[in-house]
Amino acid sequence: MPFLDHLEELRWRVIWSLIALFAGLIIGLIIVIKLNVLGLLIAPIQPYLGSERLSFTSPSDPFWVTLQLALVIGLLLSFPFIAYHLWAFFSPALEKSERQAIVPALYLGLVLFAGGVAMGYFVALPVALRFLMSFQTQALAPVIMAGPYLAFVTKLLLAFGAVFELPVVILVLSVLGLVTPQFLASKRRHALVGITILASVITPGDVIVLTAVMMVPLYFLYELSILLSRIVYRRKRKAEEAAENTPPGDGGAGGSMKLTVETPGD
Description:
- The protein is mainly α.
- It has two domains: 93 residues, no CATH class; 145 residues, no CATH class.
- It contains eleven helices and no strands.
- Helix 1 packs antiparallel against helix 4, helix 5 runs antiparallel to helix 10 and helix 7 packs parallel to helix 10.
């Protein structure tokens, strides 16, 4: 395809991605209003509020909070469509075996992201709130503002979802030949240190309990990444062996048959 045709294709895929994002924003706005997403996010901190509700300081705060939640949901809803257009644009540059390995990785990524968000909501967020809300309770009275609290919750949940994408990243890098299972297995100690630091950064609150809770699935995901990388390289090895053992082509057999036929005539 000529260069200008590539630019034209990229332009249309960007336009369709923006349309999908706008549609996701509208659907996200409906979901936030109709399904009480705000109440779902407030539920973990409700025991510390009693009968009170979250506070706000500006008349426009409820609108902007609703819009921000709708934008986050819209991004999540439109991401599969955006990923499809990115994949459709870049996949012709990949080999068939690479495409066959990366496509399942994208579906695995959706499952892992949902699992990370679920763990963040049901495990990490309650532990973090219990720890953070236990300081200076006799001297200080909490006044929880809607904007900062929802930003805190959203960042925490998205961080857990993003971290759970580690196997997908390793799988794609293995398919492209940038990492090997031997390299990953030899770096377990370094990975454990990195996992500890990462878990400490993305888990606010109790450094010991919450960090340990986060380290366990992260290390499991690292081991899963090694397993997936081994599967990728095992398939590559089998494909290379099959290519080496395959005859150059049927032309050789056809040529000898031709000689057999022509010999009596000579």
